[in-house]
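Appendix B. Raw example, untouched.
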Amino acid sequence: MPRRQIRVTGTDGTPLRAALGALRTELGLPAGFPPAVLAEAAESARSPDLSGHEDATDLPFLTIDPPASTDLDQAMFLERCPHGFRVHYAIADVAAFVRPGGALDAEAHRRVTTLYLPDGRIPLHPEVLSEGAASLLPGETRPAALWRIDLDPEGRTVSAEVRRALVRSRAKLDHAGVQRQIDAGTAEEPLALLRDIGLLREQQEIARGGISLGVPEQEVVERDGRYDLVHRALLPADGWNAQISLLTGMAAAGIMRDSGTGILRTLPVAPDGAVARLRRSAEALHIEWPHHVPYAEVVRSLDPAQGNHAAFLQDCTTLLRGAGYSVFEHGHLPTPAVHAAVAELYTHCTAPLRRLVDRYAAELCLAATAGHEPPEWVLQALPALPEEMATGTRRAGTVERECVDLVEAALVEGRVGEVFDGFVIDVKDGDPAVGTVHIEHPAIVARIESGTPLPLGERLRVRLTQAGPRTPKLLFAPA
């Protein structure tokens, strides 16, 4: 999923939309699926492999997703138990539709992830599956990998298992609606428990030293021929929902560790230089960060509804660089094994409609829970998965960076020559006259070039020298 969520609204004829369309061509992004893939997807949608699926359609699942989403990976049912809580978490069973070695499987390995652009997305699987037969749509019986995770009264994991099952979601909810119901006290217990469990899991996250970045969604709005940037701060319900996914990813990693074979999502601890850069960014954005206060505590104190706090949260995603996937066998965990932001063993397993690796993680956990060896097709693919995921993640990162450049350039189009307030947060090694400046308003980060060394860590008046969606690389110079 993207670290920086940007949407564009407005008419199709705007220069920014045209530039985004050209970017798809320039980057060679897929425009559609080959006929053989579409044919296989249509056939598997009609006749999925439902062997071994128990009937769990009696559980009243619900989904929580953005209102327009139809590619629904997860559905949940929460209940209170004598020992604490029970989380039933259904994840779309993509393996029921994708035949190993077939055209659909090969195309998924080529694409690796769903790609997100401000004007739309490029899916991992054909829509007949990702938005149809494999999606956990309300009122439809669907195959799923069904997790059952028991928690104690403090929200700590007591046990976890996963099995194949047929499930039926009763309702498709969105985060704003969930928040309103919970705040008004009208949510029925299975939904109301999302807050109780979410808050407990957030406390567990703090206790183990983890951190969640509530990066706001950004919307670029076209008004009277100019663009403006609006932030949508995440709601508490967004965070509670995310905690259920994190809980499952940690449970899956634990099952893999115990079985001796798995694939982990890892992240090394951020180097001192990255944290120092973030401190300069905080100063530029008037974020109070005393030297004795840890980074995670600062992030938890932020209010994403404030523009400068939202911009800083965007900058915090730079500390996620270095994340990757590591395979292990025979119980030999990789180094590092832990995801530094999660502060625990963790894997990706809850978004198989949108990420290739999740299908394989699910199969490893299903086999381990059943006491079986993993399927041969999983073991054969496992060694190559980290590099495949790395390639796909780099492609997604390139798409994200290029889109951000286009959007930021559009925000200041027509303002070349104007002077802005900024703060130098980086200088180039070996060439201190070139660096990075954080503009206060609009909150953008761009390159700055000067004839003399730049004042690292200091406020500066800067002049925009290059901008516009057809020249996306912004450039500033000292005023």
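End of appendix B.
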